[in-house]
Design goal:
Length: 803
């Protein structure tokens, strides 16, 4: 986990390069400085053209490069908790691909687009925040310009482009300590910009390695025979071995971009981004509620048998197990892209080509689940067993667009898009086959008998391949009949073709031969419209209204196995209990869902742009909601079930009352409720949409204090509040409450010219937040939910040197 590796070598090599003769001529990268006393103005490309954030008629939160540094934003969690009406939760299996993102109450898989530059990526990805120009979070449907899976909004990270003129380099490093850990954290990274041919060719590179110590422990019975004989329990006072540093995370990456500008009108930028995460265990706390099966965990509330708590607050950071079955995995991905900008007298032609590849492999201890759910009732004993999941997929994306720069009242954007995604996504491969020693003998009582012929002691195996092709054409036209007023209309025609095939086998499917999902294909097409009007009362005060449609494609899922009649694996009976009118074959496909977003907003700047106040209100009508229906047999399928309404608003205020003092405030409210129920969905009318907090808020204060002619202190403190929400990951008919949580971070930096040393603190209140209950790779162990939690209080010191 802590070895140097090629990527860390590249970082250290870059630092060493600073000792060369270039350093004497180096110039630091710098953000464009606003006018004296004014707030920083960030240029965004949310509408596919460059313009000030304050001129974009939509609700948007941005983080510029300076803010990312001053707030110590390194990961998705760091900035996502600072965005009004943005939420996230682990709703998928495992860890690496589990997270989904919701905006304005639109929650679920594939409802929020995630982009790096011009490339759409899965919203579970977490690229390191390093050498970014800015981050944009767009609220409301973005389907006209950004296509499918942006029905709630869009998160977009924009990388810095190579500078053709000036050499620059920045090195950064630090160490910190996290509560409950036994080893320190460390981070080291470097960024270098190197003009190769002045004004024509430049290279920009960055590399990093970030190690975060694990704040969990794993305890297990020292003597395996005692565990099998049930004479040792995981929380016993004797006969237990404890392993430290569980949940440690080592992330490293490398980025290289080349800008080639043979003429003033043509710019070519090839780029490659590589990142790998390795995790030693999972960042999940047990929340034991059951002693009925001999697991030996304490019951936190007086009850008999399994108790579903109404409020789950993690407390123990020890993962108690019978055996030493290590958990963990790795997430390895790469993005290659080629962008071409060609400026003409009437606009700019842009071509963006990219190829993305990702592989995630994770192993989970399934001993407790197999025993509690399967073998205990048959007189079996605990046996050490694990289950491995692999997701391996690739995506090719091509977009060509023309952005006009016309004289007169009309402007437009027009383009074409194509993507091809294939591999094991969204369904993983489970292999090698998950087995439990002695399973066949325990359940059959016959030596040599196999529940799944040819697969001895098989609990579960699966392999599915999916191919998704998406062509589209899009366009937006704006017209200004009078100078303060602009009217915009947009359309996107799309088509989505899905292909999938695969199999499942093992005791979980009822045993017997593999359950085959034969090749299946679905095709959907449609049009996504948008209408918008904005009016400038003054140069710095704008009001706007927009109406936009968003959609999410349908797809194909593995067929629900019939199972064995009269047993816990009987999915036919489980399906009839949900809806008597549905049969097994109808669980294979589902259709797209869609929504309409109605929004009114204003963007204003005051006091010579020392104060900005942005506000928006929205009303969303969502129909044919794609919902995962969990069956009592342990399997699930996706159905179009019910409708919902989400309404609320956002308020963001930034102010510089004094030149050295900058303040910000963000507030979001979303009331997302089910308005139409169905037989398949367990949610009743009036129940909240899962994983959506009602209130979100944040605030920050930054103060700059000169200490001498050369030194100054820059201090920043920020606060985030994420309201309560409900999770239906494991018990949708009895959702679990995720309590509200609060985060306090601080950064005190001492700057001298281009050098900074800083004291950094994150989660200073040591809040232990329930980020969501795990769906688990196998299935949730009865009586022992597992909860994702945030990093405990972390304090450290960092340095940064620019040349």
């Amino acid at each position: 986990m802590k070895g140097m590796g090629i990527k860390k070598y590249l970082v250290l090599t870059g630092i060493a390069a600073c000792l060369g003769p270039w350093c004497a001529l180096a110039l630091a990268d710098a953000e464009p400085a606003p006018a004296a006393g004014q707030l920083e103005e960030i240029t965004v490309t949310a509408t596919k053209r460059s313009e000030s954030q304050q001129n974009v008629p939509m609700s948007i939160t941005t983080f510029g490069a300076a803010a990312l540094e001053q707030k110590d934003i390194n990961s998705f969690f760091d900035y996502a908790t600072k965005v009004p009406n943005l939420a996230f939760a682990p709703t998928g299996d495992g860890v690496g691909t589990a997270r989904t993102v919701s905006i304005r109450g639109v929650s679920g898989n594939n409802v929020t687009s995630f982009y790096i530059d011009d490339t759409p990526l899965p919203d579970s990805i977490d690229p390191r925040v390093l050498d970014l120009d800015h981050i944009e979070i767009l609220r409301g449907p973005q389907g006209t310009l950004y296509g499918a899976r942006s029905m709630g909004g869009l998160v977009r990270t924009v990388t810095r482009e190579p500078d053709l003129n000036d050499f620059s380099m920045t090195v950064h490093g630090g160490t910190s300590y996290t509560d409950r850990t036994d080893t320190p954290n460390y981070v080291v990274d470097a960024v270098a910009n190197i003009p190769l041919i002045q004004n024509v060719v430049a290279l920009r590179m960055s590399a990093f390695d970030d190690y975060e110590a694990g704040y969990f422990k794993r305890s297990y019975c020292t003597n395996p025979a005692a565990a099998m004989a049930l004479t040792c329990t995981p929380l016993a006072s004797t006969g237990i071995t404890t392993v430290d540093n569980v949940g440690a995370l080592d992330t490293s990456g490398f980025t290289a971009a080349l800008t080639i500008k043979p003429t003033d009108s043509l710019t070519i930028t090839p780029k490659i981004i590589l990142q790998k995460e390795g995790y030693n265990g999972f960042p999940m706390a047990d929340y034991p509620t059951d002693t009925a099966n001999g697991i030996g965990y304490p019951v936190p509330t007086p009850a008999a048998g399994v108790v579903t708590p109404s409020r789950m607050v993690p407390s123990s950071f020890t993962q108690a197990r019978w055996f030493n079955v290590p958990e963990g995995g790795w997430d390895d991905w790469g993005l290659s892209s080629l962008t071409v900008h060609w400026k003409t007298g009437v606009g700019e032609l842009v071509s963006s080509t990219s190829y993305f590849s990702r592989k995630v492999v994770e192993t989970e201890d399934e001993t407790d689940f197999v025993y509690a759910a399967i073998t205990a009732g048959a007189g079996g004993t605990p046996q050490p067993s694990g289950i491995t999941e692999e997701k391996d997929y690739q995506e090719f994306v091509q977009e060509v667009r023309f952005v006009s720069a016309l004289q007169g009242p009309v402007q437009f954007v027009a383009g074409a898009f194509y993507s091809d995604t294939h591999g094991r996504l969204p369904f993983a491969a489970y292999y090698p086959t998950a087995t439990a020693p002695g399973l066949d003998l325990t359940l059959t009582g016959v030596p040599g008998a196999e529940i799944t012929p040819g697969y001895p002691n098989a609990v579960f195996a699966q392999d599915f391949h999916t191919d998704i092709k998406e062509p589209a054409v899009f366009g937006e036209v704006s017209y200004s009949p009078i100078e303060p007023l602009k009217l915009t209309g947009g359309l996107r025609w799309y088509q989505v073709k899905n292909y999938s095939e695969g199999y499942e086998l093992g005791l979980a499917t009822g045993g017997g031969p593999p359950v085959v999902s034969p090749p299946a294909t679905t095709t959907e097409s449609g049009v996504n419209p948008k209408f918008e009007a904005d009016y400038h009362l003054t140069q710095d005060q704008m009001v706007y209204a927009n109406i936009a449609k968003g959609y999410r494609p349908g797809g194909i899922v593995p067929i629900v196995p019939s199972g064995e009649a009269g047993t816990a694996t009987d999915c036919t009976a489980a399906l009839k209990a949900v809806d008597p009118n549905i049969n097994i074959s109808q669980t294979r496909t589902y259709q797209s869902d869609s929504l309409w977003n109605y929004e009114l907003g204003t963007k204003t700047a005051w006091l010579d742009r020392r104060l900005t106040v942005d506000a928006a209100g929205f009303y969303i009508k969502w129909k044919n909601i794609q919902q995962e229906i969990l069956l009592s047999c342990g399997f699930q399928y996706t159905a179009n079930a019910g409708a919902a309404v989400s309404k609320g608003g956002e308020l963001e205020v930034r102010a510089r009352p004094l030149d050295p003092l900058e303040l910000s405030l963000g507030l979001g409210y979303q009331d997302a409720k089910i308005t139409q129920a169905s037989l398949e969905s367990p949610q009743t009318v009036g129940s909240p949409i899962y994983q959506v907090p009602d209130w979100t808020g944040n605030g920050s204060a930054q103060y700059t204090l000169p200490l001498s002619a050369e030194w100054q202190m820059v201090s920043n403190v920020d606060y985030s509040y994420i309201g309560r929400s409900f999770s239906g990951n494991n018990q949708p008919s009895d959702p679990r409450l995720r309590p509200a949580y609060r985060l306090i971070n601080a950064h005190i930096g001492f700057d001298r010219n281009r050098f900074e040393i800083a004291l950094v603190g994150k989660n200073l209140g040591n809040e232990v937040a329930n980020l969501g209950d795990s769906r688990s790779i196998a299935a949730e162990t009865p009586g022992r939910p597992r909860l994702f939690v945030n990093q405990p209080r972390t304090v450290g010191i960092e340095f940064r040197q620019s040349f």
